[in-house]
């Protein structure tokens, strides 16, 4: 249950609009709900400020629909990550409210618009267009937690003038998510030029010795720029959640 829903319930109890016993009934199912194939954590929004997110890979459309229906039925927004096109279409057929974004491989159900955060926009930067899927996963996750995103795409170090043209925009961001494959140099460049938190995302984009993303991962972990946070390979979701934890909730 989201904090706003708990506040509304308590306010209704305080004013006498809702009986104490009715509120107790609603709260009894708050910690979790066992669906057989999954145990849905309804308490996560209270603990972390965002409801449980469904990892779609490895789940059937029916399982995703069951879990998403349970979460949305409790009045919470739903985000599902790593959903391919076929699975997205199948879930949409089961849940008409399901909004599928093919490039991001995410789906969502919005019961209510996420409360907008006071923090400024988070810049999402990619080295190349091959990194867009990971970047768009970050964008959709930021949207789900109420953070505004600004796209700055295809500004990698192979044409550094493209990046330098956007530096002033970057300096206005509340945080910067930098998505890069190949040798993974871009987060170091960004980290040396901006004061905001920088979150680096290595991608599995690259030729043989890129090793499926390990080369940019190692480069980002050993960045010359101090204080650059690094998430797992291809984890746009993880980067957005780091920004969510770093930035003010109100």
TrEMBL record:
SMART domains assigned: AIRC (SM01001)
Molecular-function annotations in GO: hydrolase activity
Cross-referenced Pfam families: AIRC
Chain ranges passing through the membrane: 175-200, 220-243
PurE domain: residues covered: 120-250
GO annotation terms (biological process): 'de novo' IMP biosynthetic process
Keyword set, alphabetical order: Membrane, Transmembrane, Transmembrane helix
Designated name of the protein: PurE domain-containing protein
Native source species: Sorangium cellulosum (strain So ce56) (Polyangium cellulosum (strain So ce56))
